[in-house]
Design brief:
With about 260 residues, this protein is mostly helical. The chain contains 14 helices and no strands. Helix content is about 75%, strand content about 0%.
């Protein structure tokens, strides 16, 4: 409990400094808000345009896929707000040797590296993304249990996404130049933004078992639409647990192999 309080205090300082930095560049702050809104609009508009030409995609109607897209936008909103900036800063800090100072701090290096930079501008769109989710959840007539579980499943999906991205970012320790890794990480996000049934059988197996990116959105939404599909939640929790173990192992190996750019 004492350790949790310590980390909470540190995170409060992270948030405070992030807000101070963001408000120092007000025009950039506003442009980032508009950029996020444009991304949300185009994501939903893309699905809507597709359904102007077809009745269903796989087993889902337009309302169901719009609900899935809104769910993934909520996951993306958490991602953009809490950790997205840190990946780019991590890539830069590795090249110039700033990671050395992070590793000397008496807190978890993963926490210090990936949760250091909060993006306040994305926080301003909270009502928009959750409003879309609630609207389309109402359109697909979710059960009471689904309504109760939905916020928790968004958090679980975000957790799996974050851990998988941490795993990918670990390779930066060996490559030093992390720009390509960050673009690879973004492509992984694109895979998760579509439901699992649009992929071939082999692709689904690989992207659910060996690198479970399709479980990020498809597993919770399948359950929310049909509570008899509870096995998907077991898969999601198992993927989080196993990915967390792999992340810690890889991170430990990476730190042992790390050679400072400042040395």
């Amino acid at each position: 409990m004492k350790s949790f309080s310590h980390y909470l205090g540190v995170y409060k300082m992270f948030i405070s400094t992030s807000f101070s930095m963001a408000m120092s560049f007000r025009l950039n702050f506003v442009l980032l808000i508009l950029m996020d809104l444009f991304f949300y609009f185009t994501s939903l508009a893309t699905v809507s345009i597709i359904y102007d030409h077809v009745q269903t995609i796989g087993p889902w109607s337009k309302e169901q896929l719009m609900f899935f897209t809104s769910f993934m936008l909520c996951v993306d909103h958490l991602h953009m707000t809490l950790i997205s900036e840190s990946f780019w800063v991590f890539s830069r800090d590795l090249k110039i040797g700033n990671v050395d100072f992070v590793l000397l701090k008496p807190i978890s290096s993963i926490f210090s590296i990936f949760f250091r930079h909060v993006r306040p501008s994305s926080l301003c769109n909270l009502i928009v993304v959750w409003g879309c989710l609630f609207y389309y959840a109402n359109q697909v007539d979710l059960s009471l249990m689904a309504w109760v579980c939905m916020p928790f499943l968004v958090l679980l999906s975000f957790t799996l996404l974050a851990i998988l991205e941490f795993i990918i970012s670990t390779s930066m320790f060996w490559m030093t130049e992390g720009m390509g890794i960050n673009f690879l990480r973004m492509q992984m996000q694109n895979l998760a933004r579509w439901p699992d049934f649009i992929y071939s059988k082999l692709s689904r197996r690989v992207l659910k078992v060996f690198f479970p990116v399709l479980l990020i959105g498809s597993a919770p939404v399948h359950f929310l639409l049909d509570q008899s599909a509870w096995i998907y939640i077991i898969y999601l929790i198992a993927a989080i647990f196993l990915s967390f173990i792999i992340m810690n192992k890889l991170w430990s190996v990476a730190l042992r192999q790390y050679e400072s750019a400042s040395s």
